[in-house]
Amino acid sequence: NKVLGYEVDKDGYFTSEFNKAAGIPEDIKIHSSTMESLVRVWTKKGLDSTFESIDIAKTIGNAYKILSQVVGEDVLNSKDSFTLDEIAKFPQGYEYNRQSMEVTKIYNSAQDFLNGEMNFDYDNKTDTKIESLFFNSYENTMKAKPAIDIFNNNNGGKENVITGVFFDTTSSKYRNPDGTITKGGLLVAIVNQNLYTVEGETTRWGKRTGFDKSMSEEEVRKAMNSFNLKLSDEVVVQGAEINDIDT
Question: Mind telling me which InterPro entries this protein's record contains (predicted)?
């Protein structure tokens, strides 16, 4: 039985075939329903469509690149699942390169990350981004509390194909009866928080907003600038509708 082009087991988890394509250890389990929701949300049609299609293996591979650099492969290899207390002790944020997904700085505490965010140069020319490791509510972030509600997404962890890019994190597929969270769940939580882990065939809008990893920071900036110029010249506004003539 195949889902999204990959074999799944009787419980709906992708098999070692998927793990090999993603470049992640064989013991990590990703559920197909999670990826189905991700694909639906990111490929929805509209003026702000970002992707034509999603490469789910590359996406999960990107999440593993981030997690293994921030938390460390030794920690990840030490056990199959992690308690919320253990997750709260993970580094709380990081800086990374959008194209390579190479982590360049790690923020160990929630307070360090909060300070880092406030002082970050969002207009840098090195394609460096800053991100929290997992979802953390605004209230928790402002109080410098670590992230533990990692499957939430400001939409209750559920899918929304109308607004935003909220996919169903399907947390029940990654929680054990004792409340611990599997390594597969940690990867899903990374994708849930960091939009730039998602990879696939981008639309024109996706290219302009930096989701095409083959484009440099300068190319993305030029694409967005040219779009803004074209928008001011060629977009006809009729009532509540916007007709983009860009071809």
Answer: Cj0814-like
How much is the pTM? 0.89
Rounded-to-integer distance, Cα 45 and Cα 53, Å: 11
The mean pLDDT of 212-240, rounded to a whole number, is: 69
Given a contact cutoff of 8 angstroms between Cβ atoms, the answer to whether 197 and 66 are in contact is yes
- Amino acid identity for residue 15 in this structure: T
The per-residue pLDDT for range 46-103, each reduced to its tens digit, is 767 899 999 999 999 999 999 999 999 999 999 999 999 999 999 999 999 999 999 9
- Residue 85 phi/psi, 5° resolution? -65, -40
Decide if pLDDT at 242 tops 90.
Answer: no
Question: What's the pLDDT at 178?
Answer: 97
pLDDT, mean of residues 197-210: 95
Whole-angstrom Cα distance, residue 23 to residue 7? 16
Name, in order, each residue with C-beta under 8 angstroms of 241's C-beta and a sequence gap of 6 or more: none
